[in-house]
Amino acid sequence: MLWGSPFFSNLQGLQIRKDGIWIPVVPLPNAFIVNIGEILEIVTNGQYKSIEHRAIVHSERERLSIATFLSPNLDGELGPAPSLITPETPPKFTRVTVAEYFKNLFSGELKRKTNLEQYYI
Question: Which is nearest to 101 in space by CA: 80, 76, 83, 81?
Answer without folding.
Answer: 76
